[in-house]
Amino acid sequence: MIGPVSSRRLVAATAAAVLALSVAACGSGSSNGSGGSTLVIDTTFDLKTADPGREYELTGQLLAHSMYDTLLAFAGNDLTKPVGNLAASYQLSSDAKTLTLPLAPGRVFADGSPVTADDVVFSFNRLIGIKGNPSFLLDGVTVSKKDPATIVLTSAKPNPALPYILPTPALSVLNTKVVTANGGSADQRDAAEGYLNKASAGSGPYELKTLDVASQAVLTRNPRYNGPAKPHYDTIVLRNVKAATQSLNVQKGDSQVALDLSGDQVGGLDTSKVTVTSGASGYSIYLMLNQSAGVSSATSNPRFVSAVKKAINYTDLLGVAGRGAVRPAGIIPSVIGGALPPDQGIKQDLDGAKADVAASGAAGQRAKLSYPSDYTLNGLSFQTLAEKLQAQLAAAGITVDLAPGPVATELDNYRNGKEQIGLWYWGPDFPDPSNYLAFAPGGLISKRANWPTTAAPDIDKLANQAATTSDPAQRTALYQQLQRDLNAGGPFIPLIQPPTNIVTANSVTGAVYNPIWSVDVSAISATSAK
Length: 530
Prior knowledge:
Layout: H1 13-26, E1 38-43, H2 58-67, E2 72-73, E3 83-84, E4 91-92, E5 98-102, H3 117-130, E6 141-147, E7 150-155, H4 162-165, H5 176-181, H6 193-196, E8 206-212, E9 216-221, E10 235-240, H7 243-252, E11 257-258, H8 263-267, E12 274-280, E13 284-289, H9 302-311, H10 314-321, H11 350-360, E14 366-372, E15 376-377, E16 380-381, H12 382-394, E17 399-405, H13 407-415, E18 421-426, H14 444-448, H15 457-468, H16 472-489, E19 492-496, E20 499-505, E21 508-509, E22 525-526
Parallel strand pairs: 1-10, 1-11, 14-17, 14-18
Antiparallel strand pairs: 2-3, 4-5, 5-7, 6-7, 8-9, 9-10, 11-20, 12-20, 13-18, 13-19, 15-16, 21-22
């Protein structure tokens, strides 16, 4: 789903015509012609499929969360503790290898059939077997039923993150009978995606009525839903709309929610008509300094890395990102458990930076700062941020040449470890600090920085300890220490969490940002909803 880079689709002219007709037909947060109520949400699609076993994009997560249930969930935007959903509770073994989940009694699918342990086993084995984008979530995990109402997940290695992975919408539970009747199987022969792009097979608060992955999805209330959510609207219309048009639509009343406006765009809104809720997103934008001397003798020099860290004015960077942005103190963003307290981030020390440059022997050497020139994240342009960093580094005697490139080109250079200094971002695949072990020595991102485990054995040891510890307090302490050590001796520099802005009609409440599924549509209500 997340991490560089999701390709977002734009609305075609033909799709725009379809949207105009659909708004006229569905209404704008009021009667849809059949006595029910309709909520219209504008966002920018990165949608490829509505099949939970294959989707792993933001729009797909939003849709799956609306139509399907997972064993565990998060309450609102609180990612610190999973709560029961289809599972009544959970118990993780002391060695963090076995997770036992008794099912909540009486839950049913949209066709009225009961949700069983067999449905969970089939759904999870299907996700593993079809080898889609989200299959890695259950790597090394075996799924079985203890009895007709109890699920057991067994990990080959200690996996204390598993309860935090299970709320991910890709791990939705599907109606086995319906899916298998429409070509579904738990291996790569599965052919149910076509059906699941036309109709849902879940137990969630909404069902899929129609879907065009390039323009819009229409959901209708599930009349047999008996879970903990309390859906307010009879119909949800999710539309693929550019940010500028989203701004116009929500102010005119053509939509009730806009999800993709930048800080600059929300600054110009008429707040007598709309409500803006701004806050930090789950993304972390960071600098990566290549540790291969063959790529750059400057960036692989520890004193040069130290100089770059000390030269940056982190507070000043927030002005580039706009309203709602925050500075992460470590590589784990503030919305994820295990984040460092704000006062423990790297401090600017311009004199110290100049001294490090002099001591490095790299004075006068130039380094290339690479980034995607044609990509923005939550309205933040990488070009603007790169220019700001270039100026800040120059004040400490560090010369960097901007080396922008198309996202496809720069992704290849980044993934192949060829960038001298890379400006990129990372977002949570699941809301657990273990997802950020990618930045530990030898991890996925560290390989792109050519930083092996042998380069920092003490940090590597600490990362392995954090990965296998299940006690919550100990986990937090270990991940925070890992970030302090990365700040001091790693080749990564956390910069910004760009903002997320949710704009709603003033009559709408409950649109709360969640970094995994954007918003929970079943929690949104309005005085006109029935």
